[in-house]
Amino acid sequence: MNASDSKSFCRVNRKKRLTLRDIFEVELRPGLDEVVSKQNPDPHQQMLAPGGRGHDDETETSEANAYCTVKSVQEEEKRFVIRPEVAFTPNLGKIFTGQSVIITCVVEPAVETSIFLWYKDSTHLDIGEQSFTIRHTQIYDSGTFQCRIPTGNISEGVSLEVISGYLILQVPASVYEGDDVFLRCHSWPGYSVRRTMFYKDQLELNPSVGDSGLLFKNVKRDMAGKYRCVKKAEQSRVATYSDESFIHVRELFSIPKIRVTPNPVMEGDRMTLTCYTDLNPLRQNTRLLFTFYRDGLNVQRFNLSNKYKILSIQLENSGNYSCEVKTSTNNVRKKSKEIHIQVQGCVLA
User: Fold this and answer.
1) Rounded Cα–Cα distance for residues 219 and 254 (Å)
2) N or C: less crowded end of the chain, CB within 10 Å?
3) pLDDT tens for residues 41-50?
């Protein structure tokens, strides 16, 4: 048998170690340690090792017996953990008394529910709708609002402050990476001023929109902080009014993680790299693009697919792989950590 015949024989007849991820479809059932194969539904013929952690256990089989894939326990749990978010319309955390605001509980588009639970300052509200309106707000309408659905976790609190004073610094209640953020030093109608000053952490900033506005384009996480505006009364040289607000810049999508299947990777395998990231549910319409690198060199250009596949991987494909995610507008980009993939040579029969 010559070398080429040996290599062909190796590809056809070799056995490899496959994780349960390569073999079975796991159905998550709390309290059960069994994995039921869609190919063979008899739970007594397909059992996990003690502990039932399908993503950690391995079995030995030939390629011909691999019919389906397993979903990790973490991925299955994630499907059932839903955390909504509270949104204000207009998107302002501070308003004057008498103004109106619409408060909405935002969930992922795939979630189907008609029951919403609302809380203000941790006290349950008698509201069952997804959104409600507070008209002609008063100071007592101020508070921190949260929502949840029966099958999910409670949202983070979002604060509304209703002011009856002369001046408020209006900032968006929800700010995300890549947003353009407008800060408005808003005075009560009829209140005349002759100069507006902005500060962040005691550092003076120059207004960029008229006399009463400050615009930040493509904000980053480090733009978070305490902002303050000051206005001087036109009728007086000494009378000043000020207000401050805190800007929290939320993550648009998480730092990506790259995973490989199968694992380990053997010569001749069909290898798939997947780039995982979590897009914030309030920004589900954001278009994300994905790219992949090996040893710092691009192997797949940016596109909508979060997968990179090699149909028959070879030893020379070993290396350090990573992925990068960006918005279609190119204003937010994040790169994963590298993972080392060592392609293992097959054992000749």
Assistant:
1) 16
2) N
3) 333 333 333 3
